[in-house]
Design brief:
Layout (H helix, E strand, L loop, with lengths): L1 E6 L2 E6 L2 E5 L38 E4 L9 H6 L5 E5 L3 H5 L5 E5 L2 E4 L2 E7 L5 H7 L3 E6 L6 E3 L7 H10 L3 E5 L15 H10 L4 E5 L11 H10 L6 E2 L8
Parallel strand pairs: 3-4, 4-5, 5-6, 10-11, 11-12, 12-13
Antiparallel strand pairs: 1-2, 2-3, 7-8, 8-9, 9-10
Length: 248
């Protein structure tokens, strides 16, 4: 298995002989307005892509955890071939097809693609009313012979759904969307440093890869903050925090 962080939650995964593009956001730096009610007026994305989008436009399949703009944007919609194989959570297929894509499969539970079993997992994109407004989100677990079990948690906080996925699949590697994304009111809507440490304590068997930082204006936990907090708590050796464009 080889994993490249492209930017934010956008990943290129080479797994069991297939290449997956995950949560593609290919907008140019500053192309989109700030996230509303974030207390930060910088335009998004905050940073450029590490290479031209064409580098990642021919995967064997695309995995989309949910349809928020920082995971599935107009630049990706326009750049990807309409014949691309796309997998998404239940309920998102119609919106993706409405953009012209012809090979879209909703994963309700699990399916097999080229010998790879892809399981859908649940998540919680925040708490209370904000969590409800953020809508349904999903993660994916990938399993194949002679490959590590990989859990892509998606946009979720530390919660019972994540615990259940860890218990059920015992992943060798877990990718978490950190960054502590939040609005001016309410709790974080993605994992912050405390959530990442809770996950490590709960599942010492998994190696964590933390992404989803330093790219969107409402993500307040930067790589620097996360490294500092993990080092102080003696968790750092369990986590990879790749830079944009870096391979793990």
């Amino acid at each position: 298995m080889k994993l490249q962080l492209i930017r934010h939650a956008t990943l290129w995964l080479e797994y069991a002989g297939s290449a997956f593009l995950i949560d593609p956001m290919f907008s140019k730096q500053g192309a989109n307005p700030p996230i509303a009610n974030s207390g930060d007026e910088r335009r998004n994305p905050l940073v450029p892509l590490p290479a031209a989008p064409d580098t990642w436009l021919a995967p064997d399949a695309v995995l989309v955890t949910h349809l928020h703009q920082d995971h599935w944007d107009q630049a990706a919609i326009q750049g990807l071939a309409k014949s691309s194989v796309l997998f998404c959570q239940k309920g998102d297929g119609e919106a993706i097809r409405s953009s012209g894509f012809t090979d879209v499969t909703e994963i309700e539970d699990s399916l097999t693609f080229r010998g790879i079993t892809i399981h859908r997992t649940d998540g919680q994109h925040g708490t209370g009313e904000i969590g409800k407004k953020m809508g349904q989100v999903s993660g994916f677990v990938l399993q194949a012979e002679e490959e590590p079990t990989l859990y892509i948690a998606g946009d979720t906080i530390w919660c019972k759904d994540v615990q259940a996925a860890l218990d059920a699949f015992k992943p060798d590697i877990t990718i978490v969307n950190a960054g502590g994304a939040r609005f001016q009111v309410g709790d974080p809507i993605t994992m912050d440093e405390k959530d990442v440490m809770n996950l490590i304590e709960y599942a010492p068997f998994t190696r964590v890869v933390a992404v989803h930082m330093d790219s969107i204006n409402h993500c307040h936990v930067t790589r620097e903050v996360l490294r500092s907090k993990l080092s102080a708590g003696h968790f750092f050796e369990k986590v990879d925090i790749p830079e944009d464009g870096e391979w793990v």
